[in-house]
Amino acid sequence: MRIGLVSDTHGELENLREATRQLVEVHNVDKIVHLGDEWEDCQVFQEVPETEAMIIPGVYAVQYRDPSIPNRIISTIEGWKILFTHSPEPHSNDLPEDPDPKELAAKQEIDIVAYGHTHIPAVEEKDYVLMVNLGHLKTEDKKGHPPSYALLEIRPREVKVKIVELTNQKTLVERTFTKKKITVTASDLKLRGLLNDTETAEKIWDALPIEGQANLWGEEIYFQIPVDAELEDGRETVELGDIGYWPPGPAVCFFFGPTPVSKGDEIRPYSPVTVIGKLVDDPKLLRKVKEKETVKITIYW
C-alpha cells in the first residue's frame, strides 16, 4: 500500500494541490493523510474523490477540541501499526482520551509515527519505532526547509520512506526499514522481542529458528548459536531487556539485570557485545529460566 503524507500547508492551497497531484499521478498513492494545519485546506482533496483521504487536526485547530474528531489515529496497514498525529509528543491541548505517543512507543504498541508540526523533514528510528516527519508545504518557512511531502510504501515486512521536495520533485530522504519480530520461548515462558537493523541481527534473523541450552550468569542468559559475526559497535554496558551477540561464543545473550562483573545497578556483559535487539515483554520474567533449560528463538508474525 502507498500512503502520501502532507501537513502544515497553512492556507497555501496551490502547494497542497500540487503535492496532491504528484502523489496521485506520479506516485499512485492509495491514500493521502493530512497531518494538521490547516483543517480547512483539506477541501483540496475533494478534487480527487477517487483517492481516500484522512485528516488530522493541528493542535491549535478548533477541531482539536472537538471530542467527536480524533486527534490521533492508529491504523494497522500490512501488519504495521501506524500512529497518525500532528505532534509526536503530548500537547497541552490534548483531550483526556487522546493517546500519548511517547507511551505508545515505549510499550511497543506502534511501529511508525507519522507527524508534522515541526516543519523539519526527518526520518529516524527511535527505540524500534520509525519516526517520519514530512516537513511542511509552505512556500517559505523561517526554518529554511523547502516545501515537501512524504511517501510510505508499505509491505508486510518492509517500509520504504521517501521525502520529496515539492518544487523540483527531488528526493530529500530515502530509507528502507524492516520489521523483525521474534518470540523467545523457554519452559512456559513466551516473550516477544524485536531485532534491529545491524548486520549481525540480519544474520541471526536469516538463521532462525535457533535454540540452545541456557547458561545463567547473574541476570543474564546466554547460549551458543551457529552464527559467526564480528563485533559491531561493541557495548561494554547494556540496557535492561537488550539482546546481545557475543562473538567469542558465538552466543546470543538476554540481559535482565546485573551480572557478576556489574558495578552497582549497571548491566555489564563479560566482554563487549553487539546489541542486536530488545525484548518487548518484561525481561525480568527470564528469572524463571533454569540452567540448561532449552531456549528457542523463532520468527513471530
From TrEMBL:
<keyword id="KW-0479">Metal-binding</keyword>
<feature type="domain" description="Cyclophilin TM1367-like">
    <location>
        <begin position="180"/>
        <end position="297"/>
    </location>
</feature>
<dbReference type="InterPro" id="IPR029052">
    <property type="entry name" value="Metallo-depent_PP-like"/>
</dbReference>
<feature type="domain" description="Calcineurin-like phosphoesterase">
    <location>
        <begin position="1"/>
        <end position="155"/>
    </location>
</feature>
<dbReference type="InterPro" id="IPR053193">
    <property type="entry name" value="MetalloPDE_YfcE-like"/>
</dbReference>
<dbReference type="Pfam" id="PF12850">
    <property type="entry name" value="Metallophos_2"/>
</dbReference>
<dbReference type="GO" id="GO:0046872">
    <property type="term" value="F:metal ion binding"/>
</dbReference>
<dbReference type="GO" id="GO:0016787">
    <property type="term" value="F:hydrolase activity"/>
</dbReference>
<dbReference type="Pfam" id="PF04126">
    <property type="entry name" value="Cyclophil_like"/>
</dbReference>
<comment type="similarity">
    <text>Belongs to the metallophosphoesterase superfamily. YfcE family.</text>
</comment>
<dbReference type="InterPro" id="IPR029000">
    <property type="entry name" value="Cyclophilin-like_dom_sf"/>
</dbReference>
<dbReference type="InterPro" id="IPR025658">
    <property type="entry name" value="Cyclophilin_TM1367"/>
</dbReference>
<protein>
    <recommendedName>
        <fullName>Phosphoesterase</fullName>
        <ecNumber>3.1.4.-</ecNumber>
    </recommendedName>
</protein>
<dbReference type="InterPro" id="IPR024654">
    <property type="entry name" value="Calcineurin-like_PHP_lpxH"/>
</dbReference>
<dbReference type="InterPro" id="IPR000979">
    <property type="entry name" value="Phosphodiesterase_MJ0936/Vps29"/>
</dbReference>
